UniProtKB/TrEMBL annotation:
<protein>
    <submittedName>
        <fullName>Sensory box/GGDEF family protein</fullName>
    </submittedName>
</protein>
<feature type="domain" description="EAL">
    <location>
        <begin position="24"/>
        <end position="279"/>
    </location>
</feature>
Amino acid sequence: RAKEDGRNCIRFYDCMMQKKVSERLALESDLRVALRKNQLAVHYQVLVNEKGEPVGAEALLRWHCPGRGMVSPAEFIPLAEETGLIESVGYWVLEDVLSRIASWKERGGPLSKLQVSVNVSARQFHLPSFCSTVMALLRKTGASPRNLKVEITESALAYDLELVEETLRTLRSMGIRISLDDFGTGYSSLGYLKRLSLDELKIDQGFVRDILDDPNDAAIAETILALASALKLSAVAEGVETKGQLERLVRMGCTRFQGYHFSRPLPALEFERLIEQASGDRKRRAW
Ligand code: C2E
Ligand code: MG
Ligand code: MG
Ligand code: MG
């Protein structure tokens, strides 16, 4: 009886696993189709300085799948990393963003001054061809490397550190800025920070969320700000949703912010409108 129960349990488990595997396969093949059929889009979320002026944007990938609706990057990026599809997805994002940056340069005005951050996954970052691909795309699109920032997470550092250093140096020598995303949530040792050529730390939204109520989160945010300042890196607070959080961060000395309090990530055209309006009339700014 117990044996039978055990067997049923295993069967049930097998069935669950099978379902999971086939769901993942389906998602992967849908994502392949998405790449071919232009179902991917890049949205942009504004990054502001202490005066509330737009200084940059983060490019965030969106997948509108006819059968599934909006699929979150938190869902499909990890899968794309595992399957290797991230290489094509990442290339598509870079090309799309750089074309956009080039069009903003041509247009002039406030959009042409923004620094646009692109998330680059560990696997993409470690491709031997990564730097030359970026170089080729800059040339192809006519975008300026000064308008580009590459965001990596601590997981990208957990490889051969010599190689990481070399890639970072190459990118920076091209004039591209480097940002360390989700700082404090990964496994990187502080020793990396002094060795690597970085420009910016992003304080993970996990530390910002409860910054008003949780003294530990406040202490961590403050420590990251102090660390960034001591190492002459800039720091951005992610996930700022309320005026209270913003004020707290300002008092801590933070000068760069991103989050729903200012704007959600927007489709490119809406983002363009937001930026041109924000610079045209300070008072009409949405935040
Ligand atoms: P991330 O790079 O840390 O991006 C920030 C995430 O926080 C975004 O989620 C953004 O929409 C969300 N966010 C911004 N402000 C707020 C806020 O005030 N409150 C809250 N709760 N969330 C906020 P999203 O767009 O769903 O992206 C999730 C993750 O997927 C990103 O985290 C990034 O790791 C990854 N991702 C997105 N686009 C790309 C891409 O093009 N390439 C790669 N490799 N990864 C990407
Ligand atoms: Mg990011
Ligand atoms: Mg982040
Ligand atoms: Mg994240």
